[in-house]
Amino acid sequence: MKILLTGGNGQLGTDLRRALGFAELVTTTRNGEDADAALDVGDVDAVENLIRALGPDVVVNAAAYTAVDRAESEVDAALAANARGPGAMARACAATGAMLVHYSTDYVFDGASAQPYREQDATSPLGVYGLSKLEGEQAIRASGARHLILRTAWVYAMHGHNFLRTMLRLGAERDELRVVADQTGCPTPAWLIADTTARLLSRGDAMPAGTRHLVASGTTTWHGFADAIFDEALRHGLIDRRPRLVPIATADYPTPARRPAYSVLSTDALVADLGEALPHWRDALALTFVNR
Ligand SMILES: NC(=O)c1ccc[n+]([C@@H]2O[C@H](COP(=O)([O-])OP(=O)(O)OC[C@H]3O[C@@H](n4cnc5c(N)ncnc54)[C@H](OP(=O)(O)O)[C@@H]3O)[C@@H](O)[C@H]2O)c1
User: Fold this and answer.
1) Which domains does the chain have, with CATH numbers?
2) Confidence of residue 36 (pLDDT cuts 50, 70, 90)
3) Band of pLDDT at residue 292, cut at 50, 70 and 90
4) Residue of 65, 103, 107, 129 marked catalytic
5) Cα distance between the two ends of the chain
6) CA neighbor of 245 nearest in space, from 221, 223, 222
7) What pLDDT does residue 204 have?
8) How far apart are the C-alpha atoms of 29 and 14, rounded to whole Å?
């Protein structure tokens, strides 16, 4: 199986390189560093030319514009990477018969629900990033390509830019951290998304298609997540003292982009496909530290 992986140096891209090692893997990064080729996924001609020239069986798109706050002022860059690029990718996949695996986000929802969002629930993004990701989903569905859109949330890893790494850095610098305690979600390690993608792809033609939610099970707040991160960091000797964690409200930490207050995703559909439950977020966090 020949797989084209884009965004190979992101959080998820890094773990996908490992998880997709069973395949003939062609990896791209934006500038070509540490990869087989350069690909700016916002460049629709380059996207189409590469897919047509390479003729992969599967395209796994781990590239995305993920700067949620900056997207509010960089609308075109967000739309290029998250909407127009994936649309071009999907059309090239439709033309060449390749399958497209793409990742999307809980930010397509507004967070006003009180129960886990299912795949078919109404979307209503609160900001440019969520809107750009939603337009990417819609372009892929409209392309006629065989595709699997995996919506995930609160992604972290021991590498890259994420909440876990920010907490460890700030916790080493400060005695007290103020952390938002009124947003609820599902922290999900990049390795879980990568390993699940590999499992699904290894089914070949029997792999599910359409849209699925892929997050660890259970829920917490950013404050609860931070608390668990410092528990694990202490247990593994990465820190010798915990900072004091002060719960705050979203309103006390204004950001350019609004975030959903409740972004819990129901994974019932994917769990049925897999035939087994997804790990609890707290166990997945512990494993992330063990295997770091
Ligand atoms: N992070 C989260 O909490 C989260 C939550 C929900 C869903 N997701 C989704 O999960 C997927 C993976 O995200 P991630 O957490 O791995 O993000 P990430 O760590 O920010 O990685 C994104 C990658 O995309 C690359 N990229 C950005 N713009 C590009 C462009 N125009 N052309 C080529 N490459 C480009 C970045 O390269 P540079 O380093 O050169 O910028 C980076 O390697 C994305 O679809 C994202 O929307 C993420």
Assistant:
1) 2-161+188-215 (3.40.50.720)
2) very high
3) confident
4) 129
5) 29
6) 223
7) 87
8) 11
Contact residues of ligand 1, CB 6 A cut-off = 7, 9-13, 30, 39-42, 62-66, 81, 103, 105, 133, 152-155, 160-161
What is the sign of the dihedral through the CA atoms of 216, 221, 223 and 224? negative
Q: Sign of the CA dihedral 69, 72, 77, 81?
A: positive
Q: How far does residue 195's CA lie from ligand 1's centre (Å)?
A: 17
User: pLDDT tens for residues 138-162?
Assistant: 999 999 999 999 999 999 999 999 9
Place of tokens 């992604």: 155
**Tens digits of residue pLDDT in 110-142:** 999 999 999 999 999 999 999 999 999 999 999
Question: From ligand 1's centre to the CA of 235, what distance in Å?
Answer: 30
